[in-house]
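## tool: complex_structure
## caller: assistant
## args:
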Amino acid sequence: MKNRDYIPKATIERLPLYYRCLDKMAVFDGEEVVSSKELGGRLGIPSTQVRKDLSYYGEFGRRGVGYDVSGLKKSIGKILGVDRVWPAVLVGAGNLGRALVNYEGFNKMGLNIVSVLDADLGKIGNKIDDITVESIKEVERVVRDGSIELGIITVPGNAAQEVADELINAGIKSIWNFAPTRLIVPKDIIVRNEDLAVGIVSLIYHLSWNKHDKHGG
Amino acid sequence: MKNRDYIPKATIERLPLYYRCLDKMAVFDGEEVVSSKELGGRLGIPSTQVRKDLSYYGEFGRRGVGYDVSGLKKSIGKILGVDRVWPAVLVGAGNLGRALVNYEGFNKMGLNIVSVLDADLGKIGNKIDDITVESIKEVERVVRDGSIELGIITVPGNAAQEVADELINAGIKSIWNFAPTRLIVPKDIIVRNEDLAVGIVSLIYHLSWNKHDKHGG
DNA sequence: TAGATTGTTAATCGATTAACAATC
DNA sequence: TAGATTGTTAATCGATTAACAATC
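## result:
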C-alpha cells in the first residue's frame, strides 16, 4: 500500500460510500465487475473522482475491464479498517444513545457498541437491546477489560467535556461526539463531531433564501 | 445584504456554529462585544476565517472594537433563516426518529417537528413526546394543513426512496435524509444526507492506521 | 485489432490564510 | 495619538476535473 500522506479528507469520507455500495452490488445484484463510471454513477460521484480516490492506495482495477466487485470491497474494507470489529463504549443512555445502539448498519462498518454508561441513577440498570446500562464510574474497568479504543458521547452539551475527560483518562483513543460542544483533548486523541443541529440549519438556510428569492427579498 | 452567489458551502456550515456560540455568550457569559479572534478561538476557527465568512453577507463589526454579541447573533439568525419557526414532518417512528423528536437544541435552530408518520401499524397511534404517530397515508393532509416544507426521513434504507417520493408528492421542498441511500429527486428539491455510518468509519480509519504505523504495517 | 477503461499528470476550480489599509 | 480590530485583496493551499497514455 502506498504512502498515506496528503490524502484529501474528502477521499476518506467517500471510501465508506464505495464500500457500502460494493457490498450491496455483491449481495443484491450479484455483479462481479464494476467500472469507475458505474460505481460513481450510483453515488453521484464522477468516475474520475472514484479512480483518483482509489489511486491514493494502490492499483485495484484492470485497464479496459474495471474492478472486481468483491475484490475491491475487500481492499477498501482493509484500507478503512472495517475488516475487523471495533468495540466501543457509549456514554449517555438517552434517546440518541438508544438509537445508536440499535442502529443497523454499524455492524457492517466494524462498529460494535459493547457497553453503555450513564451518570443518571434512573437509567443505570436499564436494558438497551441486550446491554445493561452501567454507571459512568465503571468506565475504567469497562475500557480496560474490553480493550476499547472508541468512545461515543451522547450526553447533553454541558456534560460532554467531563465525559470526554473520563473516557480519555480511562484509555480511549478516539471520540465520536454528538454533543454540540467543542471538546478540548490531548493532541493524540481523535475527535469527530457529529453536530445534528448544523445539518438542519443548512437546509433551513436554503429553504429560507428560496423564499426570499421568489417573493422578493 | 450582499449578493449570495459563490458563497463557500463550508461557510454555510460554520454560520450555525457562530450562531450557537454567540447565543451561549449572550445568555451565559453576558458578554456584549466579541472580536473575531475570541469567537473563532472558542470554535477552533481562525479569526480571519470568521471575518471572511461574515463578509459574504455584509459588515457587522466595528473596526477597532469587534462585534456586538446579540446584534451579530440576530444578524446571523436572519441570514440562516432561524429567526422563524420551520415546521417539519418526520417519517419513521423508530429509535432514531424518536431521538430526533426529543432532541434539545433543534428548537433554537428554528426546527419544530410537528408530525410523525410511519407505515407500521404497530407504531401508528403511539405517542412520541406529545405527538401521536399517524399513518404515512396521511402525508398529503399533514403537509398541506401544516404548510410544511421540510421532511425528515428516518426509515430503513430500502424504504427511503418511496418515502421521499411520497413527501415530494405531498409538497415538501427539502429532505433531511438519515437513510444510507442516495435519493433521486427533482432538481428543485434540496436533499441533505446525514449518513451516520460514514462518520464512524472515518474514526475507525484513523484508529486503524495509527495501529499500523505503531506496530509496523 | 478496435473498443473500453484504468491510473496518473496537468489544468482548473474553490476555499483558506496572510497581509494590510481603513477606521474605531 | 497609539493600539486594536475590522473588511478586503492577493497569495497560498487543497481538492476536483480533464486529458490521455497505458493496457486489457
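## assistant note: The CA atoms of residues 38 and 81 of chain B lie 25 Å apart. Residues 9-29 of chain B form the longest helix (21 residues). Handing back to user.
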